[in-house]
Amino acid sequence: MKYAWINGIILDGTKDMEPVRGKIVLTEGSWIKDIIADEQVPQGYEIIDLKGQYLMPGLINLHVHLPAGGKPKKKESDPIKLVKWVSSNALFRYAAKRLCAANARKQLMSGVTTIRTMGGILDFDSAVREMSEHGKELPRILASNMAVSVPGGHMAGSLAYEAKSVEEVIADVRAIIKTHPNVVKLMITGGVLDAKEKGEPGALKMPSEFVKAACEEAHRHGLPVAAHVESPQGVKAALENGVDTIEHGAEIDEACIELFLSNKAAHVATLSPALPFALFDRSISHVSQTAQYNGKIVFEGIIACAKACLKAGIPVGLGTDTGCPYVTHYDMWRELHYFHKYCDVSNRFALHSATQVNARIAGIGDLTGVIMAGKAADLIVTKENPLEDLSALRSISMVCTRGKLIKAPKVKKIKQVEEQLDRYL
C-alpha cells in the first residue's frame, strides 16, 4: 500500500489551513511518508489521481454510542430491558457486536476515520476496536465500554453501572479497566428524557466524592475521564473533581472557566442530539412538551458553553452523540455545520476542530488529525471545497484509513432523517 496522491488540493487540518495546490502526498503503509513538489513520482507508488478534488484529514467523532443507529422513534423504548435481552446469551452478544461493527463502518464510509465511544454494552466497544486493529474495514476506535452512573442516573442499568457508594464507584471503574478501555465515562447529571419537570434537565445525580474517586482511580491507570454533563452544577462538580472532558455542557461562569484552564480540560460539544428535541415540531419528534422545553435549555447550554470556552482559549471538540433519535452514524458533517451556524465559527475552524483539535482532545494528536509527514494515513477526499460549504463533506469520494484506500464509499441513508434535518442547514 504505497500511494502517490496527485493533482489534489490539500487542506491540511491546521487552524490556518489554506488550499494547497502543486503538491503530492506520499503514503506508505499506515503512514504519510512525505509531501513533495508536483514532480516525478518516486518508483513503487501507485498513482491516485484526484483530478482537482480536495484531500484532507479524516474526520474524528468524539462522542459515539455504537449499539444504536439514530432511527427516529414514536415512543421511547426501555434501554434496560433491551440491554438485558441483547446480553442474555452468546448468540445475541455476537449479533450485537456485529451490529456495533456495522455502525462503526458507517462512520468510516461517511468520512470519519476515528471514533471515540462514550458508553456501550459490556465490552462490545473494545471488541469492535480489536476488529479494527486486526484489519477489518473500520475506523480507528477509542473505546469506553460501560460507563459509571448512580441509581436513577443517566443510562443506569443499561450502558452504565449503578454505583451506590465510593467503594462501588472504584469497583466499577476497575471492572471497566479490565475490559481495556481508552477512556472512562461518567454519567454525572441526568439527561433531557430523565427530567420529570420543566426547567431541570441535567439534574446533578452523582455526588462529588463519587466523581473524585472515579477520576483518581482512572487517572491512576493512565486513563482520561469523560463526563455526561447537562447543567451548570454538573460542569462545576465534574471539573472540581478531575474530569478531563465535559461532554455536552451547559452555561458556565468565570469560576468554571478557571477550572477548565487550570485542569487543562476540554469541552466536547454535541449539538446534533439536542437540535431535534429543541427545534423540531413535536408532531415530528414525538417528544413531550417537557422534553422539548428542556431540550431547548440543553441546546442553548451547549452553545453557550462552547462559545465561552472558545473565547477563553479552551479546546472545544465535536461529537455527534450518535444513537440518539435523528442522529445517525453517517452525519458527522452536520455537527460541523451546526458548530459553524450556532457557535459562530468559520467553516475553516469547524473543519480544524473536527480534525486536529479533536485529535488533541482524544490524546492522539501525535498520531492523526493533520496531513503531515509522519502522521497516520487517515485521509478523505471530497469533490467540492468544505471551506466554502461544509456540505461538501456530505459526499465522500474516497476514504483512506491507516493507509487502506476505499474508493467511492457508500452509506444507506434514512430518508426521514435527511428530509427533517435538511431544513436546518
TrEMBL record:
- According to the entry, every stretch annotated as the Amidohydrolase-related domain falls at 54-405
- Pfam families linked: Amidohydro_1
Spell out the protein name for this chain.
Amidohydrolase family protein
